[in-house]
Amino acid sequence: MSDGPTITTIAERAGVSIASVSRVLNGLPTREDTVRRVLSAADELGYVPNSVARSLKSRRTNQVAFAMADIGNPVYLTMVREIQPVLKAAGYRLVLHSTDADVAEEIDVLRSLGERYVDGLIMIPLRIGEAHLKAVEAARAPVVIIGSVPDGTRVDNVRTDSRTGVRLALEHFHSLGRRRIGFVNGPLDTVPGSARSTAYAEGIRELGLPYDENLVEIGDFYRAEGAQAVSRLLSRAPDLDAVMCANDLIALGALDVLRRAGRRVPEDVAVAGMDDIDLAAVAWPSLTSVSLGSAERGRLAAELLLDRLGNGDRDPKVVTVPPHLMIRASTVGEETP
Q1: What is the number of domains present in the chain?
Q2: Could you give the 3-state DSSP secondary structure of residue 324?
Q3: Do 188 and 265 belong together in one domain?
Q4: For residue range 208-228, what is the model confidence (pLDDT) as tens digits?
Q5: Across-strand partners of 127?
């Protein structure tokens, strides 16, 4: 049985030397006519390059991994849509990992970089602990972290300022005359949950309002769990007139709960989320949300990783994407400013 076409048979079909075929298939500078003849012959013969052998020789796989908590979360899908074309233009494929925010799984992904199945990793962990930092330091391939890491961490980092984002939403509520502003957060042991909890407490006090624990509820960063948390909050504080949600999935759950409770949005209760996912603009009513620049963070992470792959000796870079408040009907009604 034939093993299929080789560079020898391609050379014979194209009428060029084996060396010329090798140069073309490895992307080295070659005369345009030779390139055309070699590629035409390879296509006619059905030649498929042995990428495994090539990666062993070059120590490059031309693959980059992206590890995220939940592949179904619209935030991460937005990032993927930005990361992939940047990498593709540079000749890399994107490999996706869904870790379910499991720390052990994330550490395993970092350690597996030693197996050289990818050339680099973009990771967005929800929890950052000492184990993560040690694994990042020991990683056998370049790593870019999306999300906050302790200052001084030797890793390329793309972050956002979610504390300012929360304050933007609270100031917006306050400007509309809302004074009983509830807050539904995700787990406090996560980076975003901790940051947004602190921002809410600080922001409420800066507005001259009393901090009321009865207006705060902890759930998870998913729609169903968020809806349950909003239900608990509404039963405990029926007089609230606004709800700040730690992400848009929680906020979408809030709209469902308030609708079932007969509370009008925004007339009775104004609602705002964070992340500005695509669903925010098409929800009913459309959802006011703090954009944390998910698309830009994904693009910047891919660019930082490519830069690191080409310049491994440079100092780590930290890039911060500022938040923006996207005002929609869930806080101001159908007529937006």
Answers
A1: 3
A2: strand
A3: yes
A4: 999 999 999 999 999 999 999
A5: none
